[in-house]
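Work Package 3 (structural annotation) set out to generate three-dimensional models for the target panel prioritized at the project kickoff. During this period the team completed the workflow that converts sequence records into discrete structure tokens, so that structures can be stored uniformly alongside our sequence database. As a representative example, we reproduce one entry of 248 residues exactly as it appears in the project archive.
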Amino acid sequence: MGTVISSGHTDFMRTNPDMRYTGYFSRGFTLVEILIAVFILAIVVSLVMGSFSGIYEGAERINLGSDLHELGNTCLNRMTKDLQSIHVAAYPRYKRPDIDDDPEIYHIKGEKRSSGGTSFGWMRFTSMAHLPFNQQVSEGIAEIVYYVQQTPENDFILRRADKLYPYPEDFEESDTDPIMCEKLRRFDLIYYDANGREYDEWDSESDDMAHGTPRAVEIRLEVGTEELSYVFKSRIAIPSYRYQEAKR
């Protein structure tokens, strides 16, 4: 018979049987090494998630900014059309009313009014820019009113009332009036006379304004949140106006 030659390795495994199961050639991870690996993995995951979170927040901020910019521009464009279409009674058709006369229906009145403890612009005027709703008559000289309301969420909205003749003697706010602008933070109207002087308020039927109408109206509008807001400003020349009489 041939001679079987045993290798040194075989002899070693025979003489050390426990080494066959204790990983003589490959050693397992210790608890410390596993904890270090988990710690490193947690850091990597947190960095990756932080990057994605920053991307999402940046995208949301961009979308919010785009919405606010569009909201402000739409509101400003609507008011520009309204003011450029203002209708007033001009001389010689206009007659300065006596004490017992009815007030002129085609007038311009602007003042400051408070809503939720904050002062905003308020304006009432007549314009050819009537916007019909449902089955309403589509043409005519409308009385338009801009006013601000506070919402139950303590935000502010700008509404636009639009009524055809006969106009109400005393204006009343209504929840059915269309919302022209949301997320309102500021709304001011500045009136300019023929000499460029500024006024916070205007009444075309008052002696203080010499029964004239403004030559221009400047809109100052801010929309947004505490974190992000946009400011819009535009001065609109009024094509139809009544010059101010010399004071008697």
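The first helix runs from residue 8 to 15.
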